[in-house]
Design a protein that fits this description.
Blueprint lengths: L9 H63 L15 E5 L2 E9 L4 E2 L4 E2 L7 E2 L1 H13 L4 H15 L12 H4 L27 H7 L3 E2 L9 E2 L8 H5 L8 H9 L9 H5 L11 H6 E2 L4 E10 L2 E10 L6 E9 L2
Parallel strand pairs: 3-6, 7-8
Antiparallel strand pairs: 1-2, 2-9, 4-5, 9-10, 10-11
Helix pairs in contact: 2-3
C-alpha cells in the first residue's frame, strides 16, 4: 500500500483511491440497474395478471350470454340479434376489454378424421378424410397434395402404426432433420397440423382459418343457420364433386332471415335437388350450435392480452372446455 506521507508515493495513493471510486461506481450502477429491472418486471407481471383477470371476467360474461342465447331457443340458433362476431366493449378500470363470440363448430374438425372413444382405439374415418381433402381442394390445393395431407392427418391421429396409402407414420417422421413421432392421439389445438407430413407451410397458412380441434371425433357440426356465405367451402366439402363453392355461397346467401326450421326442410330445397348426401352428411348439418368460440382482447395501461376460449353449450350452464392466452391483439 503506498504511503501518502512520502511525496514520491502520493501519486500512487491518489490513483488507488480513484480506482476504488471507479469500481464502487460500477458496482452501484449495476445494482441500481438490476433494481430498476426487477421493479419493471414486477410491474409488468402485475399488469399482465390484472389484464388476465379482466380477460377471464370477459370470458365468464360471454359464457353466461351464450347460455342465455341457447336457452332462448334450444331447437334453433340463428344469426338473429347480431351476436356473432360483433365486438362487445366492456369498460374495465384503466382500460377496456373487447369480447367477440363466434360459432365454434362452423369449421373443419381435424379430429373428425378418426372414430373411437379412447386413444387406444382411434380408427380412420374415411368420410372425415374425404371432407378434409375436399376442403383443401375447394381452397385451391392440388389434388395429389390434398390427398397426401388428408392421409397424413389421419395417420397422425389414429392409434395404429400402419400408414395409409400416401400417409405417414413413425418411419417417415424418424427421417426428418429433427426426428419425432406421430402423436397417435386427438389434437388439442389445430396448430398441431403443422407437424403432419404432407402439410406444407403454404397449405397450413391457407387452411388455418377454416379448421378447429374440437374435443370430440364427431364430423364437423355445421350449423346451416349460422354458416356465413364467406364460409361456403365448409358446406361444399360435404358434397365433393356435387356442389361447387359458388353454388354453396349462393345457397347460403338465400337463407331465410329466421333460418331453417328443420334439416328435412333444408335438404328438400330445389337448389339441392338431385344431390345425394349420405346419412352421415345429412345428420352432420345442424340447426343448433354446441361449441362457441370467445375472444377477449384486453388493453389496460398499454398492456395488451388476448384470451381465447372454447365454450361447450350442450349442457346448462355452458362450460369452458379450454382457453389460452397471448400478448397483443
Amino acid at each position: 500500500m503506498p504511503d501518502p506521507h512520502k511525496p514520491s508515493e502520493r501519486g500512487a495513493a491518489l490513483l488507488t483511491v480513484l480506482l476504488l471510486v471507479a469500481v464502487m461506481s460500477v458496482v452501484a450502477a449495476t445494482a441500481l440497474e438490476r433494481v430498476a429491472l426487477a421493479t419493471r418486471m414486477t410491474g409488468n407481471g402485475g399488469a399482465m395478471d390484472q389484464a388476465r383477470a379482466y380477460a377471464d371476467a370477459g370470458t365468464q360474461i360471454a359464457r353466461m350470454r351464450i347460455g342465455d342465447l341457447v336457452a332462448a331457443n334450444p331447437a334453433k340458433i340463428t344469426l338473429a340479434g347480431g351476436w356473432m362476431g360483433t365486438p362487445q366493449s366492456i369498460p374495465v378500470p384503466g382500460g377496456i376489454a373487447t369480447a367477440r363470440v363466434t360459432d365454434g363448430g362452423n369449421c373443419f374438425n381435424v379430429n373428425s378424421v378418426v372414430t373411437g372413444e379412447s386413444e387406444a382405439s382411434l380408427k380412420v374415418r374415411p368420410i372425415g378424410v374425404a371432407q378434409f381433402q375436399a376442403l383443401l381442394q375447394a381452397l385451391g390445393v392440388e389434388t395429389r397434395q390434398a390427398q397426401a395431407a388428408a392421409a397424413g392427418l389421419a395417420d397422425w391421429i389414429d392409434s395404429d402404426s400402419a400408414p395409409q396409402p400416401g400417409g405417414a407414420e413413425d418411419e417417415t417422421y424418424a427421417q426428418a432433420s429433427r426426428p419425432y413421432r406421430a402423436a397417435n392421439r386427438l389434437m388439442v389445438d389445430a396448430s398441431e397440423l403443422r407437424a403432419v407430413n404432407g402439410v406444407t407451410p403454404a397449405i397450413y397458412d391457407l387452411v388455418r382459418p377454416w379448421i378447429c380441434a374440437l374435443p370430440v371425433t364427431d364430423l364437423s357440426p355445421i350449423n346451416i343457420n349460422t354458416l356465413l356465405p364467406t364460409q361456403a367451402p365448409l358446406f361444399a366439402m360435404l358434397l365433393p364433386g356435387e356442389l361447387s363453392v359458388a353454388q354453396a355461397r349462393q345457397l347460403l346467401a338465400q337463407r331465410p332471415t329466421d333460418g331453417y326450421g328443420s334439416t328435412v326442410q333444408f335438404w328438400k330445397l330445389p337448389s339441392l335437388a338431385g344431390l345425394s348426401p349420405g346419412q352421415g352428411v345429412s345428420e352432420q348439418v345442424k340447426l343448433t350450435t354446441r361449441f362457441f368460440e370467445v375472444d377477449v382482447a384486453v388493453n389496460v395501461g398499454g398492456t395488451q392480452m388476448v384470451e381465447r376460449a372454447l365454450i361447450d353449450a350442450r349442457e346448462s350452464p355452458a362450460t369452458i372446455v379450454r382457453r389460452n392466452w397471448g400478448a397483443g391483439v
